[in-house]
Structure formats: C-alpha cells, structure tokens
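HUMAN:
Sorry, I am quite new to this. Are you able to go through these amino acid letters and fold codes? The numbers rather puzzle me.
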Amino acid sequence: MEINGKEVDINSLVTDVEKDFLKNYNGILLNQKHIDILTRYGIDYKKYTDVHDLIFEIEDYLNDSYEELDDLEWVEEDLAERNYYQNTNK
C-alpha cells in the first residue's frame, strides 16, 4: 500500500500497534514493551497479582542498580501513573 508516496506494509504497522495493546496478566495490565523490558532485567511479572508489588520490585531493582536504567524507570512510572488514574477515587 502506498501512503504519501511511500510504500507501507500494513502487517508491520499492525504489529507495531499491537505492541502497545494492554493485556491482563494476573490483574496487572502490561503491554509488550513492558514485558520486553521487565524480561531484560530478569523481573518475573507473572508471579505478581498486585501492581503495587510489581512496582515495589521494580523500585527495589532500580535502587540496587549502580547505573541509570531509563527504560525500567519508564515502566515503573507508566505502571504507577496508570494505577493512580484507574484505582484512585477522585
């Protein structure tokens, strides 16, 4: 398919978009980007049933690390923000 004079593969666009879809893992909503990053640092998201516990594990990992882990910090911030807006009475 051609869009704005450039050839675009629809299947690759769909695959890229699917990485942003949230899926429920034991009550915790994660997308493929979250899973890839957590897996890279050896954090087993499947063993958690509460987002607070997963956030605590990520924060603990970040506190023990001697290097800047921007991608893992992004996951922690994204989960905390979503949790705030979904679970806080306003």
Summary: Residues 59 and 65 are 10 Å apart (CA to CA). Strands lie at 2-3, 6-7, 23-25, 28-30. The chain has one domain: 8-87. The longest strand covers residues 23-25.
